[in-house]
């Protein structure tokens, strides 16, 4: 089971990298970031598909999407100069709280 969680973590990191390269692709007008985004999204979906054999789909997807969203928002703030408002920060904390709640809800399975 630990291996599945490590693969899910890798899938999240691939998704975060892919989304970052998607931003850098400038609307698919820059070829290297575009190719990197497609490759990393492919690896991310592959990792997510693999872990769905062992982890409940609701939990795996919530962790993948929720943590990916939170990390991408932080990257947007630090690397791309995007605004981090109080509402955005609070909303991200709610996403993380939801992921944690889903994890605990399936701990007995």
List the topology elements.
Blueprint (H helix, E strand, L loop, with lengths): L1 H23 L6 H21 L5 H24 L5 H20 L4
Précis, in short:
Helix content is 81%, strand content 0%.
Essential attributes:
4 helices; about 110 residues; mainly alpha; about 0% strand
Task: Describe this protein's structure.
The chain has 109 residues and is an all-alpha fold. The chain has one domain (2-105). It has four helices and no strands. Helix 1 (2-24) packs antiparallel against helix 2, helix 1 (2-24) runs parallel beside helix 3 and helix 3 (57-80) runs antiparallel to helix 4. The longest helix has 24 residues, at 57-80. The two termini are 12 Å apart. 23% of the residues are buried.
What is the terminal separation in angstroms? 12 Å
Global outline: flat
**In DSSP terms, counting alpha (H) and pi (I) runs of 4 or more, how many helices?**
4
Strand content: under 5%
Mean pLDDT: 93
Give the % helix: over 70%
Radius of gyration: 15 Å
List segments where confidence is low: pLDDT < 50 over at least 5 consecutive residues. Answer: none
Q: Structural class of the secondary structure composition?
A: mainly alpha
List how many beta strands DSSP finds: 0
Helix-strand pattern: HHHH
Largest sheet: none
Count structural domains: 1
